[in-house]
Amino acid sequence: MVGPSLAEDQGESPIRELARRFFITFLLGVVIYRLGVFIAIPGVDVAVLKAKVAGAAADGGPLGAIIAFADMFNGGAIMNASLFGLGIMPYISASIIMQLLTYSMPQLKAIQKEGEGGRRKINQYTRYMTLVICSIQAVMAASALSGINHEGKVLVTIENKMFFIAQASLVIVTGSMVLLWISEQITKFGIGNGVSVVIMVSILAGLPGAFAGGDSAGLPHYLMIGLVSLAIIAGIVVVVQAVRRIGLEQQRRVQGNKVYGGQQTSLPLKLNQANVIPVIFAQPVMMAFGMLAGWVGANYGLGQLFDWGTPLYRYLFAALIVGFTFFYISITFDLYDLANHFKQSGFFIRGIKPGKNTVDYLAFHLKRITFIGAIFLAVIAILPEMLEAQFVTGSSGRMLMGGTGLLIVVGVSLDIMQKVGAFFLAHQYRGLGGIGDDNAPKKGGKRF
């Protein structure tokens, strides 16, 4: 939720405060970030890299798929050899690893339960891990750049390769950490989660290029793509907003003539609890399968077995998404801790005994919800490839109907809309209480 600011406490209009937050988000997340994408690493011939990447994408091999998937999350920074080339992905990887470690290490789990102080410690550890991951990936990327050439032209213009690797690694690490700082400032002073906003901007940045060199099908072709994309977006909105609520009641206790407790609430179980993380897990595995098939299966005619668009790729990718969804939910949703929290707070599910019976009841419903959400993720991930053969004759449809990209954009947009609604709602409640203007008379609540 967007917290109150000093300007609000001094009685400033909520419209002006919200406009300021949107301006900060636009300035940091769009202007500064997109300008940084076009700042190349010193000593790199960008034209050679673009020609190399375009050739790899045209071949349709694993390298082209890897570059296309990575470029989707950082807005074409790889094509430009940008200082933001790694994007925000090192932080996402560090966050996922930290979640896994928190589940498996009692020390980290104890820190997480310390409240706000524990959350800050976990965030600090995540930043340190981001720096380590970013440093390793930066050295690997710089080493890979130093060995690239295309049609007799070398990519790196600096003769001393070791000096270039050291310099490029430092620039890439600095760029990624600056991007992390930008994301944190958006979260603190802007609207929405900064990391999500940066990823959404990166995905939307490739949308105009989807129409470059358009197909000869004309306007009806693009209208059909737009209608199919709108239908997919509508389905995503419905599923992202879907929630299964488990009713909870609080035990009543009588002291004297007063009755305490007896409150009723609900536990919301989202249908898409894992978001796009299973897709992020499954995509590198499929790329590894494709590279392995290209190296090992080429002699047996199986080099194209796991290429994008083949039936085996499609269904194996869907199966991996379903499997990773159950895996991620199992490690991030501790039902025993949840049941103990209910018991300590005095809440219970009507007709269900506390303890193991509550855990079994929640596990039963969670498995059913997770299964439906996993099937939804798998369908959204493979649907663009299935529709591309019928509606798309060029490269435009894959961007417009890309399941992962659409899921992220729709999810972030809904989150921003909810935060804006919460912002106005919080201001309305402060106004009802007479808070916000020291000179204004304190008035009671309005009558409805």
Explain what you see.
There is one protein chain. The chain is globular and about 90 Å long. The two termini are 26 Å apart. By secondary structure, it is mainly α. The longest helix has 36 residues. It has a domain of 206 residues: Preprotein translocase SecY subunit. Helix 3 crosses helix 4. The protein has a 3-stranded antiparallel sheet with strand order 6-3-7. Strands 1-2 form a two-stranded antiparallel sheet. Strands 4-5 form a two-stranded antiparallel ribbon. Helices cover 66% and strands 6% of the residues.
Percent strand equals 5-15%
Total strand segments: 7
Report the radius of gyration as a whole number of Å.
25 Å
Number of helices: 16
Mind summarizing the main beta sheet? 3 strands, antiparallel
Biggest β-sheet: strands ordered side by side in the sheet: 6-3-7
**First-residue to last-residue Cα separation:** 26 Å
Shape: globular
State the CATH class of one domain.
Mainly Alpha
Average predicted local confidence, pLDDT: 77
Q: Specify the CATH architecture of one domain.
A: Orthogonal Bundle
Helicity level: 55-70%
Query: Which ranges are low-confidence, i.e. pLDDT below 50, for 5 or more consecutive residues?
Result: 1-10, 393-401, 435-448
What do we call the CATH topology of one domain?
Preprotein translocase SecY subunit
Q: What order do the SSEs take from the amino end to the carboxyl end, as H and E?
A: HHHHHHHEEHHHEEEEHHHEHHH
Question: Which structural class matches the secondary elements?
Answer: mainly alpha
Q: Let me know the CATH homologous superfamily of one domain.
A: SecY subunit domain
